[in-house]
Amino acid sequence: MNAKDIIQLNNEQREKLSEENLQIYEDMLIYIRLKSNKSEQQTEEVLLELLDHMLEAQAEGKKASDIFGEDYKGYCDELIKEIPGEKSSTIALFLGFIIIQFIAIISFVHGALGFALHYFFELGSDIFQLSLGKGFTIIIIDLLILYLFVKVVLKWIQGSAFKTKKPKKSLEFFQIWLISTTFIGSMVLIGYFMPDFGLTLDIPIITFAVIGAILYLISIILNKRYRITK
Question: Could you read off the pLDDT of 113-149 as tens digits, one per residue?
Fold first, then answer.
């Protein structure tokens, strides 16, 4: 079975756990999965093996602590050390997929929104002056911000594992809202304050929507061919 099939089996088998064991296992699952530099295939095999052990112990009336000890985080850290790293080609393919989708969505939204505002509400222009230097720099900076955003969110999620007292949902919502607002605001401000430089091209606004749609289609084809996300 490949990693995606194992995940599906894991989701089905996990429903057999008791409420207490399910909470412990899901904390372990989140903590181990979020080590993004590890092989997905090997990680999912380890997680399924953990689940099998828990189900066997549960059938015998044992607790999770009887198998893994009281220090679940320490146990997971030892397991993570044994999991090999992901292949460079797989990481490169995934990063390429994310970059294409990111540019596709930004381009399509910019083009479709600009087109709609101009032709339906007579706001803005149907021609966009694209500064190549500014545009390229903004894309690079936005991708770096996106990378930092993902790292911060994953670290925050991982840090929530194994807490005996879970924070209120309202507090968690506020924390993730604050993180998201900070990073999105950074992207907007960079685009607003960065001066134009380099060659400038006059491009019909609808062109951005077309380019975005083509790039998104390419990302779908890549995903189906290489099963990047499913």
Answer: 999 999 999 899 999 999 999 999 999 999 999 999 9
Percent of the chain with pLDDT over 90: 77
Distances (CA, A) of 175 to 108, 151, 172, 180, 198: 29, 15, 5, 9, 39
* Residue extents of the structural domains in the chain: 3-82, 88-226
Identify the three-state secondary structure at position 186: helix
Choose among 67, 28, 20: nearest CA to 47: 28
- Distance between CA atoms of 208 and 214, rounded to whole angstroms? 10
> Does domain 3-82 bear CATH number 1.10.1900?
yes
Query: In the block, which residue shows the tokens 């289609």?
Result: 217
The rounded radius of gyration (Å) of the Cα atoms in the chain is 23
User: What is this structure's pTM?
Assistant: 0.82
Q: What share of the chain is helix, strand, coil (3-state, %, to 5)?
A: 75, 5, 20
Q: Which residues contact 226 (CB under 8 A, 6 or more apart)?
A: 93
Query: Which tokens belong to 49?
Result: 């093996």
Contact 1/45 with Cβ under 8 angstroms? no
| Three-state DSSP class for residue 108 | helix
CA pair distance 206, 113, nearest whole angstrom? 9
